[in-house]
Amino acid sequence: MSYIALYRKWRPLVFEDVVEQEHVVKTLKNSVVTGRIAHAYLFCGTRGTGKTTMAKILSRAINCLEPKDGNPCNTCEICKGILSQSILDVVEIDAASNNSVDNVREIRDEVVYTPSRARYKVYIIDEVHMLSTGAFNALLKTLEEPPSHVVFILATTEPHKLPATILSRCQRFDFRRISLESIMDRLDSISRAGGVVVEKEALRLMARLSDGALRDGISILDQCMGMGGKVISYSTVLDVIGMVNDDFIAKVVDALNESDVRGMLALVEKLVMDGRDISQFVSELVYYYRNMMVCKMTNDPAQIIEASQEVLEVIMRQSERLSQDEIMLIIKELSQLEASLKWATHPRILLEVSLMKISSGSYKADSGNLHERLKILENKLDRGVAVFSRSPETKEVNLLPKQKEAEEKKLAPKAVTGERKTAASAAAGKRLDIWDQVLAELKKGGKMTLFTALIGTKAVWLDDKIVGIVFGEGSSFNKMLVSKQENIEVLESMAGKLLGSETRIKCIDSDYLKESPEKVRAEEKDEFMEKANEIAKRLNAPINIIEE
Asked: Given CA atoms 51, 54, 56, 58 in this order, what sign does their dihedral have?
């Protein structure tokens, strides 16, 4: 007899054997006992949670000659016939490959005939969301007025793709993801039945990799058992899956924290030469940084993080080197890398570039978010990094003059030259002469949505650095549209090219120009200074700007 995969060999035969779906089991068993059999069921949930298994058990239970407390006996001729697929009254259909109107019409033509041997004719349609629109319409007619001897069991991982008309005609059951402990228990019992002992850490790793899908965990166990050993260790699972261990990831994180580019590149070389999967490594690295974030945000991370005490202590130590915002930005950077690797021709190079960005800290600048960057600055202040100096007597926070100058240069508009210099000297409220040219360029470049939103506006100098686009009454929607960052960047780029220098753009109402110049300037107050004051307030220490 040919080999049978473990997930098929250990497929549950009665309701109670289905792991962690008690809410579904209780209802279905009661339906069988009372004879209240619905004409259509919808089983929803992620992969490997027991949808198809439950459908098979239900198909036998409602046709069983001697059901036991709602369960199929699995010994009568009907149950045996369904299990061996010799009885054709239970039909399994894969909607992914049978999704046309003609396929569903065949079902519609067949349902009128009574079952040949069983009590009910059962159609199990897996991945039903893959049906075409026409197929759904054809199925709907059958679901509206089905014959009394027909039961439909629909299974899907994406119920939101089903038409509301289909959903409303089915009894819906949502299958939960299976917990780590339950998957571990099931894998342990399967392995012991096969004469193989699996170490606890190996079981935990397989369960975590299965991500709530028991079938995935069983498949990993099957692959590990295929190596022929009587004991499956943690390293065995790592070798089979192509993963690296926590020690290796910890070394990579240490190298990144220490800005040790040479050490980091050496670790990447080892990763590649050992034949490890780069995408899997990045996924594990994201999860590792997630654990670091948990350590930063909770007092008892051991209750959340699935790791040994030794590994947990290392993660907690490493998390102290970074702020919460830095960890979140690193996770964002690695997540973007993970998505890019799916289509990458040179995944190693992408990995090395991203790790270099993290090591050098340039990923912070790429975030483009001043708030996030200042939060990181705040964390450095709290840790005593040399960004601010403290006076021990007064406990004042003194912004060092070079740092103040550097930050002001980052945030202030660039110096103006050429035509802009002449225009900038004009009084606030003077029209921007090139505005008609900007609008013409928008129209010429095909940016019709932005061009239309700017019809009827005018552009004026608010001061020697900022141009205001003036919107009249009833133009709030157009103002909101133009105010989007991507549109502001387009306008600043075009105006800058025509003026010969960089330009800042601001969307304003017509009433804005009536305000006093002092109030206008107050609204344009330096963002960094506002944040610096906020930081000092949080630290309960006055701030003193040194004007040296």
From this structure: negative
What are residue 390's DSSP bridge partners?
397
Alpha-carbon distance of 458 to 464, in angstroms, equals: 17
Q: Are strands 466-471 and 458-461 parallel, antiparallel or unpaired?
A: antiparallel
pLDDT of residue 55 exceeding 90: yes
In this structure, what DSSP letter does residue 431 have? B
Quick one: pLDDT at residue 146? Answer: 83
- Give the 3-state secondary structure of residue 167: helix
DSSP, collapsed to helix, strand or coil, labels residue 433 as coil
Identity of residue 465:
K
Residues whose CB falls within 8 Å of the CB of residue 122, separated by 6 or more in sequence, listed in order: 58, 59, 62, 63, 89, 90, 91, 150, 151, 152, 153
CATH 1.20.272.10 residue window(s) in the chain: 251-367
**Cα–Cα distance between 265 and 271 in angstroms, integer?**
10
Report d(CA 154, CA 140) in Å as an integer: 13
For residue 234, give the nearest of 196, 200, 260 by alpha carbon: 200
pLDDT band at 543 (very low <50, low <70, confident <90, very high): low
The tokens for 123 are: 């159609």
CA gap 246, 200 in Å, rounded: 16
Q: Does domain 180-241 have CATH number 3.30.930.10?
A: no
What average pLDDT does this structure show over 8-33?
Answer: 91
pLDDT tens digits, residue range 164-176?
Answer: 999 999 999 999 9
Q: Is pLDDT above 60 for 497?
A: yes
Residues 432/436/440/442 CA torsion (nearest 10 deg) = 40
- Where do you find CATH 3.40.50.300 in the chain? 6-174
Question: What is the separation of C-alpha 219 from the centre of its chain, rounded to a whole number of angstroms?
Answer: 25
Fold of the domain spanning 251-367: Zinc Finger, Delta Prime; domain 3 (1.20.272)
Higher pLDDT, 426 or 432: 432
CATH topology for 418-523?
A: GMP Synthetase; Chain A, domain 3 (3.30.300)
Which of the four pLDDT bands, split at 50, 70 and 90, describes residue 290?
very high
> Above 70 in pLDDT, residue 80?
yes
Residue 477 has pLDDT above 50, yes or no: yes
- Sign of the dihedral through C-alpha 341, 342, 345, 348: positive
Residue 8, Cβ neighbours under 10 Å: how many? 10
Q: How many helices (H) and strands (E) does the chain have?
A: 27, 13
- Give the pLDDT confidence score for residue 448 in this predicted structure: 81
Q: Is the pLDDT of residue 49 over 50?
A: yes
DSSP string for residues in 181-201: HHHHHHHHHHHHHTT-EE-HH
CA distances (Å), origin 476, targets 458, 492, 507, 508, 515 = 15, 21, 10, 10, 19
CATH class held by domain 6-174: alpha beta
Distance, CA of 317 to CA of 291 (rounded, Å): 12
Copy the structure tokens of residue 110. 């067949």
CATH 1.10.8.60 in the chain, residue ranges: 180-241
Q: Which of 196-200, 206-210, 497-501, 518-522 has the lowest mean pLDDT?
A: 518-522
